[in-house]
């Protein structure tokens, strides 16, 4: 059996983190078209410097309370920043709960300060491993969500590597807590982490370049007037398998032909552009918005809670009605009808879901327009006009 020297492996682990930080910093300085590279560079740097600090401490170059608590906190914050950087890569912005990144490490620091658990090598290492496992598995989940929406080639291997690294840290924590001679286990675990760090750096960079290349190819699939996707783009963006909670809104502007006939097609185009901008601002990062043609839009909302479907649709309807349209001093009253359909069980198909939303839209039109209708209210023998 091959025996790995733990000191050498840890040195290489720290080196792999610092190399990864350099890759992300290089990407950020080169203005690679993706958010999160600065956060990811900070994440890898903090974890790497935490390992360096621990190395100095192990050689008695620093007081034990300083290096034990310092290395632990750098690891906790660094791995938290890793998950945050992946989320920024996915959505381009900070998540709503980003402030937990400050609260959670502070709680760990207070517990360590009060109990002194960080002075126990076994407990400190277990906490470090469990935190790393949690953050890496969360990052893998975020990449999986990105793959569902954008279907980039690098997403699947990136999610797999992040998940494998998380499981490796989880097994390392178990070895620390339940195996008497766990050092040899840790040597193999950190060897896996070294490979994972290099793979994560390469694959995250690949995700950004895949996204840039895809944006170029999508230019032909964007609606030239509103700047959102067209029908062809929508078909390519849809996930292969629908899940319970996946929701479709069919949104159609009421009496749009009257606007074109009375005020001209230029005014109608202005209305379409403004409505598209409103929908784009209201949707979540994972939602898919497309213009289906004419005055009809489609919004796909993956994994939307059932209780949120109608309230979200109502907010969209109210937002469209509230757009302050003016044409030569005359107010244009623009409203929309919305049909809502939601996947209730696995196995439902995309055409069936869109058809159900179309039927609901038909009912909203029939009941007076400027309203929301749910597919469950539509008789099965009713067909759209």
UniProtKB/TrEMBL annotation:
SMART domains: GGDEF. The chain crosses the membrane at residues 6-27, 34-54, 66-86, 98-119, 125-146, 158-179, 185-208. The keyword Chloroplast does not apply. InterPro entries: Diguanylate_Cyclase, GGDEF_dom, Nucleotide_cyclase, Rev_trsase/Diguanyl_cyclase. It comes from the Bacteria. One of its GO terms (biological process) is cell adhesion involved in single-species biofilm formation. GO terms for cellular component: plasma membrane. PROSITE patterns: GGDEF. It catalyses: 2 GTP = 3',3'-c-di-GMP + 2 diphosphate. This is diguanylate cyclase. The lineage of its organism: Bacteria, Pseudomonadati, Pseudomonadota, Alphaproteobacteria, Rhodospirillales.
């Amino acid at each position: 059996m091959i025996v790995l020297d733990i000191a050498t492996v840890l040195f290489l682990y720290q080196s792999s983190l610092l190399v990864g930080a350099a890759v992300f910093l290089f990407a950020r300085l080169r203005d690679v078209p993706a958010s999160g590279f600065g956060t990811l560079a900070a994440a890898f740097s903090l974890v790497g410097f935490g390992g360096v600090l621990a190395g100095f401490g192990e050689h008695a170059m620093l007081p034990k309370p300083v290096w034990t608590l310092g290395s632990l906190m750098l690891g906790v914050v660094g791995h938290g920043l890793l998950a945050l950087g992946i989320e920024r890569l996915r959505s381009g912005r900070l998540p709503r709960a980003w402030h937990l990144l400050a609260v959670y490490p502070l709680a760990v620091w207070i517990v360590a300060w009060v109990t002194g658990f960080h002075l126990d090598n076994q407990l400190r290492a277990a906490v470090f491993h469990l935190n790393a496992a949690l953050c890496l598995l969360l990052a893998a989940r975020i990449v999986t969500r990105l793959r569902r929406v954008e279907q980039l080639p690098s997403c699947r291997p990136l999610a797999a590597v992040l998940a494998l690294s998380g499981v490796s840290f989880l097994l390392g924590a178990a070895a620390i807590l339940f195996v008497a001679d766990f050092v040899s286990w840790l040597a193999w675990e950190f060897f896996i982490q070294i490979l994972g760090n290099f793979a994560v750096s390469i694959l995250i960079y690949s995700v950004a370049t895949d996204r840039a290349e895809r944006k170029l190819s999508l230019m032909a699939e964007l609606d030239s007037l509103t700047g959102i996707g067209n029908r062809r783009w929508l078909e390519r963006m849809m996930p292969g398998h629908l899940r319970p909670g996946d929701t479709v809104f069919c949104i159609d502007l009421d009496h749009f032909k009257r606007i074109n006939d009375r005020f001209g097609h230029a005014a109608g185009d202005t209305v379409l552009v403004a409505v598209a901008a409103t929908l784009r601002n209201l949707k979540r990062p994972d939602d898919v918005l497309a213009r289906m043609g004419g005055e009809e839009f489609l919004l796909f909302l993956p994994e939307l809670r059932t209780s949120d479907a109608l309230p979200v649709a109502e907010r969209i309807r109210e937002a469209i009605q509230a757009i302050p349209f003016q044409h030569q001093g005359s107010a244009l009253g623009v409203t929309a009808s919305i049909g809502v359909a939601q996947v209730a069980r696995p196995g439902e198909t995309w055409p069936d879901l869109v058809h159900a939303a179309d039927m609901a839209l038909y009912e909203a039109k029939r009941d007076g327009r400027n309203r929301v209708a749910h597919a469950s209210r539509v008789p099965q023998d009713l067909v759209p006009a």
